Amino acid sequence: MTVTSPTRTPQEIRKDLPADLSASIAVFLIALPLSLGIALATGAPLQAGLVAAAVGGIVAGRLGGAPLQVSGPAAGLTVVTAELIQHYGWRTTCAITVLAGVCQLGLAALRTARSALMVSPAIVHGMLAGIGVTIALAQLHIVLGGTPQSNAVANVLGLPGQLADLHPVALGISVLTLIVLLGWPRLPGRVGRALRKVPAALAAVATATAVAALAGLSLPRVDLPSWRSHALPELPEGPVLGLIAAVLTITLVGSVESLLSAVATDKLIASERRTGNRPPRADLNRELRGQGAANIVSGALGGLPITGVAVRSVANVKSGAVSRKSAMLHGFWVLLAAGLLVPVLDLIPLAALAALVMAVGVQMVNITHMRSVTRHREILVYGTTIVAVVLGGVLEGVAIGIAVAVALALHRLARTRITVEQQDNGVHRVRARGQLTFLAVPRLSRVLNQIPHEAHAVIELDGSFMDHAAYETLHDWQESHLAHGGTLEVTGRAGSSARLPGTTSADEFEAYDESEGADGSTGAGATGAGGPNGPGHHADRSRRGTHQCCRPWTPWQNHCDHRPAGTRTVTAAAAAEAAAAATEAEAEAAAEQAASPAPRRRGAGQLANGISAFQRDTAPHVRDELARLAREGQRPSQLFLTCADSRLVTSMITASGPGDLFTVRNVGNLVPLPGAESTDDSVAAAIEYAVDVLQVDSITVCGHSGCGAMQALLSSTPGAPVTPLRRWLKHGLPSLERMASRHHAWARISGRLPADAVEQLCLTNVVQQLEHLRAHESVARRLAEGTLELHGMYFHVGEAQAYLLSEGEDFFDCRVFDSVGQHA
């Protein structure tokens, strides 16, 4: 069940207009100098930046799928656009922009937006960093008072000559711009807090412009020609393949940057705002469609290529924008400025704009991104992409980055560490770390052949994949080793016995089962005298590990009984029968053996084994994230209230991780009513803490099939002795009454009726506990504010299927739990 705020009324929309108006002005003040600076960096007419900013705000803002994303000319396309202008001229570049917009519309129609996100983040961040380096090198020449060269290498080679021929006036204005730009966000005190409301980019350019104008400095300034002479596109001229490559480059780079910006904006909104005042999540295919339409319009009107701009989108969200009207209004303000503020814009020194864009380029080499790719061992991909973009161009750099990423992935797939160790008890332990493919067969064969024929061997496979070639090598060696009198055990990562991965065909299973002992241990001699410690040495571990269901919970086996079928149920009659057929001493031994077949590992041993597996296999992967949570504190998005049943693993059925869920578990997933007799304040305290302190966005009550608490409620009899359990289950009596009442809607699973009375009560209990939740003051208050959602959930243990409670009632006045598929 989901409780949300009602549909927005016209009055509420008008109420939000001041917030959108304020945010649009803040974004406009950032966009105006940046649009002029990017146009300057590309070598395009300066009006082209203003055209792209206006069209990006109005067209992409209206048609796009990310309501709070702001589009316009972006630094990510600066290098590409500059190269196109040098090769084909400005008017042909406008035509290429139009064609790129058409391609984006085609990609949106094919619903391929999500596919653009499959590119490795290391490649994307490397591409943007390479573009930033190229921009910074080019603008540095203008900052020093010169003219940029045609490419990054030429700009580096030309720096010594430029430094020898400095222009002090241009350099002074550039330095002033950078000082204000970097120092503005750090202004102290109450006055500084008030001044910081003005964007740093605008303050820097305005300060430099004012100083240059008041001091009467002579240096190049913005020169916006008449709109009557504004250049419009012409039919493309040049090699067909070159034009196609240009269109594809604009399409791919612009699309990826826009979609990544949309996703980042969604994440920012989720972290900044609560449920009640969030806009809808981004529709990426619609966003791509809006970007395509904007590029068509911008190119047709003589504007720069358009993409989603992260800097402006962040400013839009942080300024309190509520809807897409903010982005559209920002485009309208740019349009007015282009028509009415030309005399003011003509006062801006080009050195100030160059310094601004150079700072943007430097910021594109993000230290946070570098740390992230280093942590994920992709710094090679990141660095290679940067170098390739700087030296060869964007398209070539991305292609080389993809090639390196693929090569690195193949290397990791093929990289396998195989070692052999002879232990003190004579056991030869072979460890295979990584994926076993045909590439590892020579090393695997060489290591296996080092094991003496009559020795006991333990093969520890620590990987998720084994191809046919590796399987055949292991299988053939196994048959040879067993034929020569040796013994063998194949184990998984946690030391539990397992079949060889890859035994899928019937003949392979048959061949493998021939060497399996009656108790499930692997190898013909695993329980024979040939073992190093006599009969039954490996019986316990093999019994625990031969079933695939044990992974990844191999240290813990209580969820699955792997004892042989003949020993699972031992009755007194069976023990007596064994005693009658033997001598007294033998009877005692037989009865003891019948009553205690193969003791299973319990208590501290299981716990230590499980902790050891966590420290070895999981802790290295989650340590950084847990360290972050330790520093920042918990910020869960949901309170998850469920049963204490051991079969419910909340993180598994919700695919959640550390910091995601604030979980409360009790017998029967019950929520005592406030003030009820025998109230347990621990549940109410957890609800209050989650709702008022942690400010969770939603609460989920999750029931499950075969709930013992519900069975106890159904079978309870009046007059039974009062125990702590029976006292607690009194909180479930309203669910029992609801199920029997004719005045309440039934609950059922979509497509079928409840299997029995227990399942009916389990479903009804979820609905009833949601009613109990609404009686809590903190929950009722947040629901009234529209900042909290309530959800009902039912998990069928036997089917491993989750169901969510839908809104309203069906045709038969039933509350329906709908199944959740793989692509929900």
What does this structure look like?
There is one protein chain. The chain is of the alpha/beta class and about 800 residues long. The strands form three sheets. A seven-stranded mixed β-sheet has the order 8-7-9-11-12-13-10. Strands 3-4-5-6 form a four-stranded mixed β-sheet, covered by helices on one side. It is globular. The two termini are about 15 Å apart.
The helix/strand class is alpha/beta
Assign a percent range to the helix content: 40-55%
Multimerization state? single chain
The rounded Rg comes to 35 Å
Q: What's the overall average pLDDT, rounded?
A: 79
**With helices defined by DSSP (H or I, 4 residues minimum), what is the helix count?**
32
Largest sheet: 7 strands, mixed
Distance between the termini: 15 Å
Number of strands: 13
Strand content: 5-15%
Shape: globular
Question: Going across the major beta sheet, what is the strand order?
Answer: 8-7-9-11-12-13-10
Low-confidence stretches: 1-7, 501-551, 562-600
Helix-strand layout with pairing:
Elements (H helix, E strand, L loop, with lengths): L9 H33 L3 H18 L7 E2 L5 H11 L1 H20 L11 H23 L8 H13 L3 H16 L5 H7 L4 H16 L24 H33 L11 H17 L6 E2 L1 H9 L6 H16 L1 H4 L4 H14 L3 H9 L3 H14 L1 H21 L2 E6 L5 E6 L7 H8 L7 E7 L5 H16 L3 E5 L14 H8 L25 H7 L26 H9 L3 H12 L7 H30 L5 E6 L6 H5 L6 E6 L14 H13 L4 E7 L3 H7 L9 H6 L3 H8 L5 E4 L7 H18 L2 H9 L3 E8 L4 E5 L8 E6 L5
Parallel strand pairs: 4-5, 5-6, 7-8, 7-9, 9-11, 10-13
Antiparallel strand pairs: 1-2, 3-4, 11-12, 12-13
